[in-house]
Prior knowledge:
This protein has helices at about 40-85, 90-115, 115-135, 140-155, 165, and strands spanning about 5-10, 15. By secondary structure, it is mainly alpha-helical. It has a domain at about 65-165: Four Helix Bundle (Hemerythrin (Met), subunit A). β1 (about 5-10) and β2 (about 15) form a beta hairpin. It is rod-shaped, with a radius of gyration of 29 Å. It starts with 5 loop residues before the first strand and ends with a helix. Mean pLDDT is about 80; it is low at about 10-15.
Amino acid sequence: MEQGKGTKNPAAGTYRTAGSLYHDRQYRRTISDHPKGENVIMYRLYGALVVLAIVAILSGSSFWVNTSAAAQVTGHLQEAYHSAETGDSHISAQHIRQAADILQEYRQILCLFVSHRTIDSIEQTVAQAEICLRQKEIQPFLLYCRSAMDMTEDFSRLEYPYLHNII
C-alpha cells in the first residue's frame, strides 16, 4: 500500500487513509480513536523494554555465574595438576576435592543455564581424576585433570558473546 493512499470502502464509497503506523486487528480505526488512548504504542514499547531488561539480567547473571564457577574450578584443577607433577599428592588431593565441591555447590545454578550433560561430563572427569589419585596412578590422573581443565575452559568460552556462540 503506498503512502497517502488508503483502502476503499465500497459501501461508503470513500477512502480511509493509511497514515497510521499502528494496526490492531480487533480495533480497525485510527489510533486516535482507540479506546486505550493514543498511548497504546507506548504501553507496548514499555512492555517490550521490560522484557528486554529481564532477558539482559538473566543473561548477565548466567554469564557471571558460569564464568566465575569455571574460573574457580579451572584454578583448582591447575593447582592439582601442578602439585601432582611435582609429586605432592596430598596437596593435589585437596585441590581436586575443592574443584569437585565447587562443581557440586554450583550444580543447581549451572544447570539452569547450561545443559546437564555438560556439567555431568565435567563432574565425571573430575571424579575419575580423584579416583586415579587415590590409587596413586599419577599419569591417568594428569590426563583426567587436563581433560577436565579443557572441558571447563570450553564451557567458560561458550558464555562469551562471540558471533559463533550466538549463531
